[in-house]
Amino acid sequence: MNSESAAAPVVPAAAPVAAEAHKPCANCGAPMYGPFCYACGQPEKGMVRHLASVMSDVADTIFNVDSRIFRSIAPLYFRPGFLTTEYFVGRRTRYVTPFRLFFFLCVISFFAIQIALNLNDAKFDLLKIAQNRGNIEQALTEAELDKNLQDALSRLEDARKVPEIPAADAAELDQVIANLRQQADQRRAWIKRKQEAQAKGEPPPRDPNEDTDDLSFDGTPWDPSRHPIAVGWLPAFANAKLNEMAMRARDNIKAARNDPRHLVAGIFSVLPQTLFVLMPLFAVLLKIVYIFKRRLYMEHLMVALHSHAFIFLSLLLIALLSLLKSAVGAGGLRPLVSLAEAAVWTWLPIYLFLMQKRVYRQGWFMTTFKYGLIGISYLILLCFGLAGALVATLTLA
């Protein structure tokens, strides 16, 4: 009996197996009991592994929206301020984190908008013909003018037969035709004045459309060789870069007049970065306006993240409804889709107002006053942001 009891404690001989199961940390040597070292915090996984495994971790970090996305989208859209108040009281596990929700909807919405713009070519073709004054305004004879006008009118009549252009846009197409005829009449009058001046041996009148796309500095048209941009306190390479950007801007403006799709696509390509910059500034506005609430900046940032996530979700719905409207054409569903589109636009400012009231818990008067103040301030910031996006599109694209 004694020998058996004495032999019983020998069981710890399995200790080498346990020690072997817990590999030592490569950094400090402590046993690893999980994916991270309890002593120094170094992760077990490093970057030296298969690329597929690394990309899987990156995608999981950014787009970790699994089943929680379905529990987050509905309250985000239909319950103003609900996700934010839930986050503040500590109920966070059930929902996608604010930044991931913001980032996910930002990416998805801009993909949808880009697809809607690309698939709506028929509408853009109308805009292209309406803005393409070059063929008409550059005509030098009445015969050339008549030919160019007839070509443009023929393309418009062909566009009228495209199924993607519903009957509801017929009035817009008629307006485009009227504008083209008016431009042609103005050009015809200038051609006649030019011919009369040449017949009398007088200098011809100045072409009203000459150099309309040139950039001007100091009241003089910009020219890379004769009148370049030259800022005295900048080094030569910086001035050369400015002139290079000015040349791109001039070319892009001319191209945009013939086909605005490139300009629109360019603005949308830099708009996400613009909103990424404006979003924390929106939190700063909330911090200033609600300074007496004594909330941390990060609390206002959560409000900003959820607000912008809702805005991106609204843009996504608008893009999807635009695609649906193009798909149904002039059918009976088109009025219903238009009504839904109007409802989404109407719900957007109402939601943001109700969210602000629910999160900050102030009366209707103060909420209305602060909502208007924040809205006007943010609108000004947005205008500056869009202007910067437009300049970046023209000078860098």
Automatic annotation (TrEMBL):
Per the record, a Pfam family?
A: DUF3667
Compositionally biased spans, kind Basic and acidic residues = 191-209
Q: Endoplasmic reticulum as a keyword?
A: no
Location of the region described as Disordered in the Swiss-Prot/TrEMBL record: 191-219
Q: Which stretches are transmembrane?
A: 101-119, 263-289, 301-324, 336-354, 375-396
Q: Give the UniProt keywords, A-Z.
A: Membrane, Transmembrane, Transmembrane helix
Q: Return the protein name.
A: DUF3667 domain-containing protein
Q: What is the phylogenetic placement of the source species in the record?
A: Bacteria, Pseudomonadati, Pseudomonadota, Gammaproteobacteria, Lysobacterales
